[in-house]
Amino acid sequence: QLQLVESGGGLVQPGGSLRLSCAASGFTLDDYTIGWFRQVPGKEREGVSCISRSDGSTFYAGSVRGRYTISRDNAKRTVDLQMNSLKPEDTAVYYCAAARWVPPQFGLRYEAYDSWGQGTQVTVSS
């Protein structure tokens, strides 16, 4: 059974860093595109970054490009999201998601994914 478990969230001051990890089980990691999303109450789930199954291409939302880095470690079966220069507006519950096939133009669309983790809270505040 495919399972995703996020970890690494917490409270950090503006300008700080956090590293989120998505642990995968029940499937071959590099057969799937993995995405990171975030959501705040009352708003739609927002695509943050994704890494393609085929060639490991990475994509980022404009709001995080240059600050976040996604990476995949097939041996450890994890997909990490390194978040630097964090801002209060980055505060959200962060989710990882998996899909067997995601057209490149839909990599940051939550509708393209069918398996989700439970989420981890990230709070950026002084």
Write the SSE topology.
Elements: E1 3-7, E2 10-12, E3 18-25, E4 33-39, E5 46-51, E6 58-60, E7 68-73, E8 78-83, E9 92-99, E10 115-116, E11 120-124
Parallel strand pairs: 2-11
Antiparallel strand pairs: 1-3, 3-8, 4-5, 4-9, 5-6, 7-8, 9-10, 9-11
What does this structure look like?
With 126 residues, this protein is mainly beta. The strands form 2 sheets. Strands 2, 4, 5, 6, 9, 10 and 11 form a 7-stranded mixed sheet that branches. Strands 1-3-8-7 form a 4-stranded antiparallel sheet, with no helix packed on it. A hairpin with a 6-residue loop joins β4 and β5. The mean pLDDT is 96.
Pick out its properties.
globular, 126 residues, seven-stranded mixed sheet, 0% helix, mainly beta
